[in-house]
Amino acid sequence: MTEPAEPRLRVVLVEDDARYRASLETLLDNSPGFALAASFGDAERALAWFAAAERFAFDVVIMDVELPGMSGIAATGKLRERFPDAAVAMLTVFEEPKTILAAICAGASGYMLKRTSARELLAQLRSIADGGSPMSAGVARTVLELLRRGHATPASAPGRLDLTEREQQVLRGLVRGLSYKQVADDLAISHDTVRTYIRTLYKKLQVHNVAAAVTRAVREGLV
Amino acid sequence: MTEPAEPRLRVVLVEDDARYRASLETLLDNSPGFALAASFGDAERALAWFAAAERFAFDVVIMDVELPGMSGIAATGKLRERFPDAAVAMLTVFEEPKTILAAICAGASGYMLKRTSARELLAQLRSIADGGSPMSAGVARTVLELLRRGHATPASAPGRLDLTEREQQVLRGLVRGLSYKQVADDLAISHDTVRTYIRTLYKKLQVHNVAAAVTRAVREGLV
DNA sequence: GGCGACATCGCATCATGATGTGAGGACGGC
DNA sequence: GCCGTCCTCACATCATGATGCGATGTCGCC
After folding, report:
1. CA–C1' span, A114 to D16, in Å?
2. Which residue from A216, B95, B142, B150 puts its CA 20 to 30 A from A157's CA?
């Protein structure tokens, strides 16, 4: 009944080391669930491609930090001017706080190390595409350290509301800006079922439209 | 009873939900490589134990955020006054930015969600004890967002998009969950004018519906 | 004295969302 | 076996949103 619409993750690769790039290309080509959308050895050509591309042409970008000419960090900034919600995974051998911070501020969603195993790397790509932000343990620690230094604010706790697994998935879809239909396709369920979830969602969140639901979801980290 | 070498990770548990605590105790007791050092239902008794404890008596602390009386966050702060290098894993159902930030500032090394699987949880405990900082995908995302906002972007700035005064007002209305009509009334302008603003807003934000617009607005603090 | 950016309004059209009502199957607890 | 919750789907209807095309008036500006 349902057409075999492959939910393959289309990856754009920007990496100057030819050998490393080739190995990543091979990995992506041979990993079920992944597809190489494009591959570049420098930021300039990659940006040219992005300038002409549609948002639907790729799901996630692997960006090397150390590139000849324009750096991967600068390129990420440029890329996100055009596609503000693009998922970018920085790939590097360095773990320096300054570099990490710059990458994050430029809009990187994940910060992966080149020594990461292939299996782990694919998992992290998935995670990034799903809105997560995978980081290696060391990077995570650095990030927390930076955050601690920069901020200093106390907090409070609210009341809880438990959303069903499905409800959460639907909410996540809305937060991503999907329409009912897209959410339905995404979860492989009926259009009407999505409506049903949204109804109960609205009751639980005490709202009457997507906007308010999304606001609560994002502000309170419900998803 | 007393073995010569002890490679087991000794865990102190602070969790008020008796059932959940019991299940964690069971998990730790039955997982090779882990050992329950102590277990408490509230922060006060836990702190009393820590006050009398030696640093080598435990390796990592699992701290629930929502505790009766003193919160897990406050307790973490106290604990780290005595043991500044103690590894604390916050455990919670919430992913609110404020809570996360407070926990991190209090000295938490990891931020785990209660819905995490047992297997994953043990891996994260190991990671924390090893100096890592495991975070769930959603938490990681929030952390990066906080970091971006706090550290006034150095090198490459994330493409500044300047919204008009009116556009911002309209966006704020949407974030509040108002309908076009309500926004119009609120700003004392015509329904059609609101539409016009939203059109340009969508172009600037590169989205095609309220949900996505609101997500960007809230996440990036545009309003 | 036209040019560009902003704020304002109107109309039209098609797509999507909001809500009501109803209902069947799966599963776990009592 | 019955009850409650969750997941699933359908049909109906009205309200609202998404987008395209245009238009007027005010500023500040070179």
Report:
1. 49
2. B150
User: Collapsing DSSP states into helix, strand and coil, what is residue A89?
Assistant: strand
DSSP, res B53: -
Show the low-confidence residues of chain A (pLDDT under 50): 1-6, 151-160
DSSP SS3 for B173 = helix
When CB atoms are compared, the residue of B140, B176, B214 closest to A132 is: B140
Q: What is the pTM of this model?
A: 0.62
A210 to B208: CB separation less than 8 angstroms, yes or no = no
Cα–Cα distance for residue pair B100/B142, rounded to 1 Å? 8
Gap from B31 CA to chain A (nearest CA, Å): 22
Contact at CB, A177 and B211, closer than 8 angstroms: yes
pLDDT at B82: 82
CB-count burial class (<10 Å; 0-12, 13-18, 19+) for A63 = buried
Please tell me the predicted confidence (pLDDT) of residue A23: 92
Taking the C-alpha atoms of residue A72 and residue A2, their distance in angstroms, rounded to an integer, is 40
Residue B190 pLDDT more than 80? yes
Q: What mean pLDDT is reported for chain A?
A: 82
> What positions of strand D are covered by protein, i.e. any atom < 7 Å from a CB?
6-12, 16-23
Q: How far is the CA of A70 from the C1' of D26 (A)?
A: 44
Q: How many CB atoms lie within 10 A of CB A56?
A: 7
Q: How many CA atoms lie within 13 A of A179 on its CB side?
A: 6
